[in-house]
Amino acid sequence: MKKYALIYNPVSGDAKFKSRLDEVIEYLQVSGGLVLPFRTRLKGDIRSFISQVRGIATDGFIVAGGDGTVHEVINAMLAEEIDVPLGIIPSGTCNDFASHLGFGKDLSVCLRAVTGGVWRTVDVGRVNGEYFLNVASAGLLTSVAHSVDTTLKNTLGRMAYYLKGLGELPSFRSLHVKITADGQIIQDDILLFLVMNSGMVGSFPTLAPKAKIDDGMLDLLVVNKCSISELMGLFISIFAGRHTSSSHIRHLQAANIYIECEEPVESDLDGELGPLLPLAISTITNKLKVFRLA
Ligand SMILES: Nc1ncnc2c1ncn2[C@@H]1O[C@H](COP(=O)(O)OP(=O)(O)OP(=O)(O)O)[C@@H](O)[C@H]1O
Fold this sequence. Notes:
By secondary structure, the chain is an alpha+beta fold. It has helices spanning 21-30, 45-53, 67-79, 96-101, 107-116, 144-147, 150-156, 158-168, 228-239, and strands at 2-8, 33-39, 60-65, 86-90, 119-127, 130-132, 135-139, 175-181, 184-196, 218-224, 249-254, 256-261, 266-269, 272-276, 279-291.
């Protein structure tokens, strides 16, 4: 009998995953598995659960939530040096990493990947001692994911992020940063930067078209200071997939990136509040096992 632990966030996305718990348990049981469910409550409780059940969940951990919950689970697994594969059931608002892996709303597809037992390895990013799976960022729009009210997210979904982002635009000022990316130095006034593992952020699928989650590289995308009308033009080129050739964008790949700013700017890691700048970011290649469809 295969043994799994299922960590689910009851408020991720539209907060409806909990009504499908019975379906998940049935699927795993019928496939000859045994599952130990855990409902998240407060920050930090995931690590203590994972630490306690590491000897029980010998065939894998499963997380049902958004990018933020996946972020907490992978941090706990890596801190506890747990090497079993992770299955992801996307039930958050954006689910960027799961979408990049090809998992969508079809629960049976996610569970089939778990019970199939086939996994692949993926890179993880590390910043100031914490891990991220998908993106580390700071500046305009980047705090939106962790600052939107949960109830608003539950009812409006992604629209809550976009509305909050629009509200930020008029009052935002640029940041003067120094970025050292594998020895290359960029010193500029910028609006935001994203350091990506997959190229999927905020449900935009191809922000970094060359990004791969197992190449040992991170994709840095910097949006230089520009006017609101130029920024609107940039959004249009993002939709059209032409943004990397824009004069307002800098895009490069690097394994080690150091980002400094004179101000104490907050960062965001996978949609959760991250450390203040400076950020020492690196990639650890093929560090995490994730279930995939055979
Ligand atoms: N029981 C709970 N009640 C309230 N908040 C919770 C609970 N459990 C976890 N959280 C918080 O939920 C946040 C993570 O939400 P998550 O990212 O999974 O969903 P989302 O924001 O809807 O999706 P996405 O990040 O993909 O857009 C974390 O900040 C975590 O502390």
